[in-house]
Amino acid sequence: MVKVTETKYNPCPGDNISVIIVAAGTGSRFGADRPKQFLLLDGKPVLQHTVERFRTALPAARILLVLSDSGREIWRELCDRTGFQSPETVAGGATRSESVHNAIRLLAHDADSYSTVLIHDGARPLVTPDTILRVVAAFADSNVEAVVPVVPLTEAIACFSSDGTCSPTDRGTYRTVQTPQAFRTLILDAAYNALSGQSMPDDAAIYSSFTGKALRTVDGDIRNIKITNPSDLAIAELLLKK
User: Fold this and answer.
1) Are 204 and 177 in contact (CB under 8 A)?
2) Are 27 and 71 contacting, i.e. CB atoms less than 8 angstroms apart?
3) Angle, nearest 10°, between helix axes 129-137 and 46-57?
4) Cβ atoms < 10 Å from Cβ of 152
5) CA 65, 208, 91 angle in degrees (round to 5)?
6) Are 207 and 97 in contact (CB under 8 A)?
7) CA 99 to CA 37: how far, in whole Å?
8) Among 94, 142, 90, which residue's Cα sits nearest to residue 114?
9) 64: left (phi over 0), alpha (psi -120 to 50) or beta
10) How does strand 17-22 pair with strand 62-67?
11) Separation of alpha carbons 119 and 19, rounded Å
12) Cα 222 to Cα 185: distance, rounded to the nearest angstrom
């Protein structure tokens, strides 16, 4: 009789973990001469701050940086100028979902059932190591397949109708979902393969639509803002100085 030893999975920083940083957007809403992820924040490109946060929190993790063709040229120039060592890059797609799918396919080749992938917006440069590690720690439970960081809403919300009227809604039952969102790699790969071409707001929606399951949540951080317009960049500057 062969003796089988059950191995418990206790994630350590970077252990069986990969990170996808999505930075293939054009930033057209921002109105700058280049995508917002390449603009300077406290003297460094926004995207450099983002990469550094993950390298600090998960020093052994494999990081994939998803960039458009034009973005790759800009990023290469910035890295050459500053001497910054870029993570591995992956070609982006026409949509955010296509961009993530390109990276997921690459990771799936070497993944096993315990492999975990964190997916983060390149334009969220203030994510803290604490937030990243809270997300990772949730996978100490081997039954967990998906985790998202959330923060409570602070303002009143209402459901609007096409006729311009609205109905107040209890904000206490809602949360703002941030990134990094994390998943078992092979499950998310299967979800993307099954739902390829469908428009979904984020990776959490892809997972839920495919599996029909709810996601585990952990506390996010109100400082983990996404830079979308010039005022967000100014706020990020202030937060970095605190």
Assistant:
1) yes
2) no
3) 50
4) 12
5) 20
6) no
7) 15
8) 142
9) beta
10) parallel
11) 6
12) 27
pLDDT tens column, 61-106: 999 999 999 999 999 999 999 999 999 999 999 899 999 999 999 9
Position 3 pLDDT exceeds 80: no
Structure tokens at 80: 């050459």
Amino acid letter for position 71: G
Which residues are within 8 A (CB) of 149 and not within 5 positions of it... i.e. 6 or more apart?
Answer: 131, 134, 135, 177, 178, 179, 180, 181, 217, 218, 219, 220, 221, 224
The pLDDT assigned to 34 comes to: 81
Question: Distance (Å, rounded) from C-alpha 240 to C-alpha 72?
Answer: 26
Whole-angstrom distance, CA of residue 23 vs CA of residue 134: 23
Give this prediction's pTM: 0.91
| Cα distance between residue 55 and residue 49, in whole Å | 10
Contact predicate 66/20, CB 8 Å: yes
The answer to whether residues 13 and 136 touch, using CB atoms and an 8 Å cutoff, is: yes
Structure tokens at 215: 């996601």
d(CA 85, CA 206): 32
Across the strands, what pairs with 160?
166
